[in-house]
Predict the structure.
Amino acid sequence: MSAIHDLIAQISDPRLRERLSAEWANAAKEKKFGLVFEDHLPELLPLHGAKPRKGDLVCRRQEALKDVWQIQSLHAGVATCVKPSNEAHPSEPTRAAAKAVQFPVDELLVVREFGEPIFPALVPVDAVANGPLDAPWHTLIEADNYHALQLLDYLYAGQVDCIYIDPPYNTGARDWKYNNDYVDGNDGWRHSKWLSMMQRRLRLAKTLLNPADSVLICTIDEKEVHRLGLLLEQEFPEASVQMVTSVINHSGVARAKQFYRADEYLFFVFIGEASVTPTGQDMLNPPEADEDKKIILWRQLLRSGTNARREDRPRLFYPFWVDPVRKRIHSVGDYIPLGISPDSVQPPEPGLVACWPIRSDDSEGCWQISAETARKGLAEGTVKLGAYTSTRGRWSISYLRNAEKERIARGEIEVAGRDENGALILKPSATVERVKNPVTVWNQRSHNAGAGGSNVLRALLPGRKFPFPKSLYAVEDALRFFVANKPDALIVDFFAGSGTTAHAVMRLNRQDGGRRRCVLVTNNEVAADEATALAAKGLQPGHPDWEQWGICRHITFPRLKAAITGQTPAGEPIRGDYKFTDEFPMAEGFAANLAYFKLDFLDKERVSLRRAFREILPLLWLKAGAVGPRPELKRDEPEPALFAPEGSNFMVLLDETRMDVLLQALQGRAGLSHVFIVTDADESFKTLAQDVREVADKANPGLAVVQLYRDYLLNFMINQNQDRAAGSANTLGARA
Ligand SMILES: C[S@@+](CC[C@H](N)C(=O)[O-])C[C@H]1O[C@@H](n2cnc3c(N)ncnc32)[C@H](O)[C@@H]1O
């Protein structure tokens, strides 16, 4: 019994005792213990490019997002607006109507209130394809992450293996916006605004994570570390939360009269069975020179650095004969003397293609080992086929060095078996002392934000500025602890900034041939000083001359494109090498694909009337795993009864009366993951879905049959309700 109960029990007047008891029970129900903050509703999102329509919420451009109106009617460039009904007193509808005012349409900015139902679509902006055709695509979404998370909830609820976020740290240095206003150090509400912003997003993010086994990683510094820790405990009560301290600047950042700061923090939220996979990396004691290279097991066979040209080592210039259909090495050819062109060498069997040691600048190079050793390695499983780069039309070859073979012999690396092509499947041995779990203090020179973050970005995008990118290697290490054994992991970063997380995922894939997929979300904000300069030129957000300087367009996409292609935006090969676990020239790029979209909002009526297929199509491709090229329906192409693009892993039945066409297309078809059926009739959907399963289930295990557009519409109506419920949780707030 608490002290208050004790005191109440001592009251002799039974009526007073009962009343006080009831009052206290009420107060205890409503009062929040722990983290208390003011809930800043509503958050508003400006849609700079949107044309005002009847029913839209709008603000006047010059008033930022201060005063919200709803458009009642539009006539001859003038909008008649009223206060939105939830702002008028419910018993006084006529009062709101009486207060109708008129504004020129040009002065109005469409806004979305968080909690309003949204019907999102993705508009393709750009893409880079440099990976195998059948590989999944990484995705970049330009959007406010709150709405993007709602969309991701429709696409991947419960499927995400890892979320990595590096949110604005709320330093007071105008590093983020709340309701379109930069939050600075003079804002007395800045902590509670930040918490409200984070809480709403974390609640949506939670629904994405696989409840059986996944992790959320969130970085932060001293400004919000304590509040974030409490918030995570509150939002993930069933998970365990651990904090790691990480040195990111060994000289320290100056703090007048205080200790210089050398570190920041990472929170790890372990969901379900999630656990750290030891990689053998000692996170506390900086590795001796060369020591850190021991973790990576498979290496590129193409020699880089010194003595890497054909003429330096002519006997190391020989072909691997590759079977491109079965994706395996057929055999190893003999070296050809200098002066003989590789084009003159015929394959030992028709259909095989040659893989010569050709360098990223297209010059002739050499392998690391002789043809004879390569043949031996192929037989013992220590040489294998790597990734295919479609733009270069080349395969890569991986091998295990003697050092790794010795570690296998010593038992430091376990051989778990062989893959279908005979290559060894390796895992660090848990029995060896070196591969114990890492400790909670990280001190890695590779995690230095300057060297591993800003310098890498400068090499990729010479002359472009982005504040505080994470060290590429720091993100790579953090992810590896959770996705090392998940080669198909789905990883999300919804505060993507310059895109370091996707870059790190590409490196992880290259290291072990994985097919991990990364979904990035970032807004297209310009920095506060840039915004002032652009406004001084008479520009406004939404104008192409403004938007081109935004983070997503100016930094995130160009950075990832540069990383993938190995070329700067000016078309120059990127200078410098990747360091640490996997060293190779940045100019080699990655065998990876990336699709870039901007989030847009659909009109509910259009969706209900099933007139939004073209707009929804990218979502269906993403929902089916973003495998292979994204199919499109051209503007002037009529909608077919069945949309079944060749080679795709999904089909859409648009005309429910033509089930015969779908069933016929399903005959003998394998490799499908989704079938979408457009119908409003629930009963008939059930029957159709059953028919589909009968025909297609065996050849397509795990096939999902989805009812369109009902599934889509319902998802977003439900989200709205969840958000409204979430919004009322922290109203008992103190100014913080
Ligand atoms: C600290 S940075 C992330 C840096 C990133 N980890 C990197 O290495 O480049 C946070 C980013 O989140 C973006 N951001 C902030 N609020 C956002 C929001 N509501 N929706 C989408 N992106 C947002 C900002 O544009 C900023 O670039």
